[in-house]
Amino acid sequence: MKLSRWLRFPVLAVFLLSTSFMFAQNAAPAGLDAYVNRVLKTFNVPGLSVAIVKDGKVVLAKGYGVRKLGESAAVDENTLFNIASVTKAFTAAALATLVDDGKISWDDRVYQRLPGFQMSDPYVSREMTIRDLLTHRSGLGPDAGDLLQWPLTTFTRDEIVYRVRYLKPATSFRTTFAYDNNLYVVAGQIIAAVTGKSWEEYVRERIFLPLGMNSTTLSFAAYPPRGNYAWPHSELNGKLAVNEFGLKDFPNGAAAGAINTSAAEMAKWMLVLLNHGKFLDRDGRLFSQKQSQEMWTAHTIEPIGDFFSIRRNKRANFCLYALGWNLQDYEGRLLVNHTGTSVGFVARVALMPEENLGMVVLTNAESRPAYNSILYHLLDQYLKVPPTDWTAVLKAEADEQRDQETKVRAQQEARRATDSKPLLPLGMYAGEYTDSWYGPVHIQLEAGKLVFTMDHTPVAVGDMQHWQYDTFRIYWRNPVMKDAFVTFTLTPDGRIDHFTMAEVLPDPDSGFDYQDLLFTPVAAAAASQK
Predict the structure, then answer these.
(1) Three-state SS string across 382-451, please?
(2) Cis peptide preceding 151, ω within 30 of 0
(3) Among 274, 285, 269, which Cα is nearest to 215's?
(4) Are 51 and 63 in contact (CB under 8 A)?
(5) Which helix (H) or strand (E) holds 357?
(6) Do 512 and 481 touch, CB atoms closer than 8 A?
(7) CB 59 within 8 A of CB 52
(8) What domains can be seen in the chain, in order of their start residue?
(9) Which of 44, 47, 225, 306 would give a disulfide with 75, using CB separation of 3.0 to 4.6 Å?
């Protein structure tokens, strides 16, 4: 009956039918709301947002759950989340605009753009290029020097650039993948040196404003009071809780992970990426097609392993790193993607160029299985492959990992020599120590107990308890820090020669590179130089 009325107006009828078909073709997958709500409950995530773009259109930009545990304000498509290392692709794109402008090339030597830049190896200092800064192949170990910027240190960006020279290589240059944050700080400083503008000013001017990402911020301090933003949540003492530390800026590491944005504005970013830098709604480009190809060209082979836990179920055939992007395969297609992890937030963006498909999941809790279960559920639906219950698969893996951590703790306790004692009186461990790249720390004896402080990291104050022999365990007073073992080594005449540190529960994604530190007593170091 309604159709017969439309046919009285043939032009209108054609328009409405074609519009209906367009929406049908670009509709969000059926049952998504129910699936996402199940994910929220299964992985104990207060809120998240999802955006999907397909064939040049925004299919979905929607929020689920709440911004803050215990409150009713709902997440929507405009709610801001920190995206952490997803920021790296924006830094790469900012450099791409400078390449387009003829102001730099990807293969410029870093020292030519930042005079005085050095690595510990003179050859690497001379040969390292801007491209090398972005591809995690410097020869440094995983997350080397992260404690220079995380969490909330007093080092400036220029000081971080300077101190990189004291980080010791773990492998040969350009041979091995090892994730790195500090070299993205160096990349951000190249932008500042070339343009005379800060990384923040340049990214805002050349990326956010052209894309209309007007709500996106580069600092939590820019949040308006009672604004539409998600609160970070962490597991504290075995219970999920708001972790306000996640709303603190670490400006010295901004180029590696400072952006706060929404599903709606990430959709704008994904659309121009899938269109190889060209704006869809007007003439002009954010960056050239040539630079789009450069940013998605593989440079470093990553070990497949379990880098993404999903591979246990559908193992990738390759995993590579480009300029600010991971490249892997999924169901025979290229998947261009990146994850981000910070205190109380995790995020993942994934693009499938062959399908002209992009999606992003932003969450306000530290649950990678949550975003992975949604992302792979959506990919399977769009690719029309037999469905997998990703929520069940990833919940089982998360439970297995938790059980493994419990076993590690039990094994540590079982091997611990509880009847052993420190070789020296506690007071003899107190003093000032220094590491070549981090700098000074202090150990003080307070009320008969040792207290550990890291001079450039105000939140790093911890109580030392004897573990066994000459190893102590630090229980940090701020839970954002990961507990560490401190092991002292003595000289033959019974003086402290040095101490090393290690995470109590090793975590390759924690950002606490204690293993790279070697502290020597300041008095002993001074005496050795005389």
Answers:
(1) HHCCCCCCHHHHHHHHHHHHHHHHHHHHHHHHHHCCCCCCCCCCHHHHCEEEEECCCEEEEEEEECCEEE
(2) yes
(3) 269
(4) no
(5) strand 357-363
(6) yes
(7) yes
(8) 29-385 (3.40.710.10), 426-528 (2.40.128.600)
(9) 47
Output the pLDDT for position 506.
Answer: 81
- b/e burial code for range 119-132 (CB count within 10 A of at least 16 → b): bbbeebbeebbbbb
CA distance to 8, 223, 526, per residue, from 88 (Å): 55, 21, 40
Q: What angle do CA 502, 519, 431 make, to 5 degrees?
A: 115
The torsion angle over the Cα atoms of residues 399, 401, 406 and 412, rounded to 10 degrees, is 170
Residue 217 φ/ψ, nearest 5 degrees = -125, 165
CB 369 within 8 A of CB 397: yes
How many other C-beta atoms lie within 10 A of the C-beta of residue 242? 19
Tokens read off for 413: 């306790």
Closest CA to 337 of 347, 345, 324, 326: 326
Tell me the pLDDT tens digit for each residue of 205-218. 999 999 999 999 99
pLDDT tens digits, 164-212: 999 999 999 999 999 999 999 999 999 999 999 999 999 999 999 999 9
Percent of the chain whose pLDDT exceeds 70: 92
Q: Residue 85 is encoded by which pair of tokens?
A: 């290392």
Take residue 388 and report the two structure tokens written for it. 């997998």
SS3 content of the chain, % helix, strand, coil (to 5): 40, 25, 40
357-369 tens-digit pLDDT? 999 999 999 999 9
Cβ neighbours of residue 497 closer than 8 Å, sequence gap 6 or more: 489, 490, 491, 520, 524
pLDDT of 99 > 50? The answer is yes
pLDDT (tens digit per residue) in 434-461: 999 999 999 999 999 999 999 999 999 9
433: left (phi over 0), alpha (psi -120 to 50) or beta: beta
Is 0.90 surpassed by the pTM of this model?
A: yes
- The rounded mean pLDDT for the chain is 91
Predicted local confidence at residue 19, as pLDDT: 34
The CA distance from 221 to 447, in Å, is: 38
Predicted confidence band of residue 17 (pLDDT cuts 50, 70, 90): very low
